[in-house]
Description:
It contains 13 helices and no strands. By secondary structure, the protein is mainly alpha-helical. The chain has one domain (3-259). The chain is globular and about 65 Å long. It starts with a helix and ends with a helix.
Amino acid sequence: MNAFVRKYLAFAALGARQARAEPFELAGRAVFFLMILFVFSGVYRGVAAAGGSIGQSPDSVLWYIAITEWVVFSAPIVMIQMEEDIRRGDVAYQIARPASWLGARFAHGLGTLAVRAPAMLVVAFASAWLFAGAPEKPAALAVGVAFGFIAAAVMTLFHVGIGVFAFWLGDIAPAYWIWQKLLFVLGGMLVPLRFYPDAFVFVAKLTPFPSLLAGPASLATSAPLMSAGALLLTLVLWTAIAGVVARVVFGRAVKQLQLNGG
C-alpha cells in the first residue's frame, strides 16, 4: 500500500474512531429515526384506510421511507467541521500539509459513514419490520441497501462541496438548508417520486437528488424509479460532477487566500 492511500486511510480511521466515541449521538439518531417511521406508518395507513390512492401498499411505502431516511441519517454533515476550520483559520495551515484538505475531509467523512451506516441500517430494518412487517422482496431490498451505501458516500462528497462555499458565505447553514429542502422534495425523501406528476419527476431526474434517495429506495421496493444499471451510471456521473465542482471552487478559494496573505 503506497503512502498516498495510507494517509487518507488514516483520516478515515480517525473519523471511524470519533464516530465510535459518540454512542449517545447514534442513540439520538436512532430514537428520532424510530419516531419518523412511527409517524409515517400512521399517516400512510390512514390515507389508505380513507380510500386514498398511494400507488403502493402502506407497508411498501414505509420500507421506502426507511431506506431514504437511513441514507440521510448515515451521511455525515462534514461541512460543519469545514466551516469551523475556515472560521478559525485552521485551513490556512491544513492546506499546506501533503494531504489534500478536501480529500482529508472526505476520507474522514467516509470513516464516520462506515460506523454510522451499519448501525443506522439495523435501526431502519428493525423499525420498518416493527411497523410494516417483513419486506415484500428481500432480494430487491438487498440491492437497494447496496446502492444506499454508495448514495450515502456520494452525498458525503456533496457535503464536502457545500462546505467549500464557507470561504465566501462564512455561515454554511443557509446553503445546507437549501440543499436539505431540495433533497426532501426532489429526492423523494418522505413521499415517493412516483406520487408526483410526470413533469415534476422529469425535472427531478435532472438533479442529483433522486439518485441519492428515491433511486436506491425504490429499487428496494416494488416500484423502481430506474434500473440498477441506470442508477449506477447516474451516481457515477454525479460523483464526477461533485468532485470537479468541489476542486474548482476550492482552487479559487486557495488563490484568494494566497492573494490575501493566508
